[in-house]
Amino acid sequence: MRFLMLNWRDPRNPAAGGAERVTHGYLKALVDRGHQVYWFTHHFQGAPITEMLDGIHLIREGTTANSWLKAARWCASQVRFDLVIDQHHGIPWYAPWWCRTHNISYIHEVLGPIWNAFYKWPWNLIGRTQERWTHWFYRQVPFWTACESTRNDLIKNGVRRVSIIRYGVSTMALPQLPPKSLSLPLRLIVVSRLAPNKRIGEAIKLVQELLQRKIPATLQIIGSGEEERALRILVQDYQLQKSVTFTGPLPEQDKDLALREAHFLVHTSQREGWGLNVIEANAMGTPAIVYPVPGLIESTLHQKTGVVAANETAKALADAIEQLLPVPQHYQYLREQAWMRARQFHWNRILPIASEWLEARARGDSIQGSEVLPL
pTM for this structure? Predict the structure, then answer.
C-alpha cells in the first residue's frame, strides 16, 4: 500500500517536537510492514527538497501559506495513494478536496486558547474561528487522535467520527524500580520545547513559591526554543540562578538519566495532545505534577500515577507537592503505578494496533462513530 502523510514539520526540522516524533514512529512502522510511505512537509532553510529517513520519502516544499497547494500539485503527479493523512496543527491541508483517494485527519490537540499564546488580536480570534469552521467542514472525515479531551473538542465542533489511538514512546521502562526517597531539596524537571504555549515560566514560579514556603527545590529545564531568553530573564528577576538550570536538548540517554533522578516532572502547558514526556518520566519511575488541561489529565492519572493540580497556578502546584511531603508512602505508590502504567505505552504495543487501523483505512473499511482502540 501507498501512504502519504501531510505534516508541517519533519523530524529533522529544527522546530520539530513531540508531534513529529510520534508521526515518525507510525510511519516507520508502516515502512517496516512493507508499505511505501511519503511525508510531505514544509521546507526549512538548508534542507534538501527530497530525502530518505528510515525508509520514509520526505518531500519538502512551501510554507504555512502555500504548502497545501504545493502538496496538491505534487500529489496529482504521483501514482495514486491508498491513504492520505491530513495532519492538522490549527490549519489543515484541505486534502479531502484534492487527494482523490481515501483520507483521514490526524490531530494532536484542538488549539483553542493556544492561538492566544502566539498571536495578538485580531489574528488570534481569526485563528480560533477558522479552526472551528474547519472542523465543521471536515465533519464527515474520520479523525484520529490520542486522547478523550481532543475527541470531545472535535465532536463539539461538529466532527462525527473520532478514533483514539494512544501515543507510544521509545523510552523503555526500567526493568526494576530503584529506590528514591522524597527528600529535600526537591528535584524538579521540565522536558519541553521552550515555546509560549508550554508556559515554562509557571514551573519557574513554582520554585519561587516552594522557596517562599521554606521548601528547598531545584529545577532542571531540558529543551530549547524561542522563549529561552525570556525564561532566563525571569530566573534572574526571581534571583533563582542557583536553583534553576538550563541544559538545552540532551541525548536520549542523558535525558532518561535526568528524568530518573528527578522527584517530579512538571508540566504546565496550555494543553497537549497527550504529553509524551509524562510517560517517559513515568518509565523512569518519576511521577508528573501537571496543570488540569486537555491531554495532561489523560496522560497523568490523578493521585494514581501523578498529581493534577487543582487549578492552573504555581500556588496549586506547590500545594500539591506540600501535601505529599508528609506522606512519602503515597509518593512511592505514585512512582510504582506510573512505572507500571508506562509499560503499556511502549511502541511495540502501540504500533501494531495503529498500523492495522491505518491499513484498514487504506482499504476503505468504514468507521461507525467514535472508538477507543484497546491496548
Answer: 0.93
